[in-house]
Design a protein that fits this description.
Blueprint (H helix, E strand, L loop, with lengths): L23 H4 L28 H16 L5 H26 L11 H17 L5 E4 L6 E6 L21 H13 L4 E7 L9 E7 L1 H12 L2
Antiparallel strand pairs: 1-2, 2-4, 3-4
Helix pairs in contact: 3-5
Amino acid sequence: MDSAQGYNPLPKPNMATFSHQPSAVQRAPQQLRTPSNRKTIYDRNLNRTRTAELSRASFAYLFGEMVSYAQKRVTGIQDLERKLNEQGYPVGLRLLPLLLYREPPRTSVRPNRILPLLQFIHGPFWRHLFGRTADAIEHSSTANNEYMISDNEPLVNQYISVPKEMNQLNCAAYVAGMIEGVCDGCGLKAAVSAHNGGTEMWPGKTVFLIRFDDGVVEREGLLDSKK
């Protein structure tokens, strides 16, 4: 043995010992956890939870996180309101068939005219979301295709602190997106936006401006002329 090379007491590694062995974590299939009665939320009766209420603290936390998430990905107030509108739109679109399903048989008809649609939003839709009806419905005196629904104390704005430099921001743009989803779901395409309309009595008042497409207004005129 050559002393210059020294003595290595470690045996040569056996390459078989280095073969890849899948870990127990990799082999174990991932499974969804289900209750002991094997029923999930999809097994619930849609009418059984119609009076269920969500904790305001939970709602405030979740909505605040949504606003914070959107704020980090925008460059201005209008962009932030547009992002909130886009988040609310699919909620309204999916909520419409559920509310119609829960309505009595005589009234469970999808609104296909402007006035019944506005009454549906003002009544069952608002009551489902906030436990009360909206405060007012108005028709614009300057534009035939514009209507306004007012809420004197929007729930979505009660837990949001808006800095002074962003005083024009109205987070109720999320609700405006939901209204827009309901309108489109009824085939009455409209653009909906939320505007600050505070007064001395109601400083947090919000006006939801619903601007229907010209084709919707023309169709309304044709249907009225046939009466």
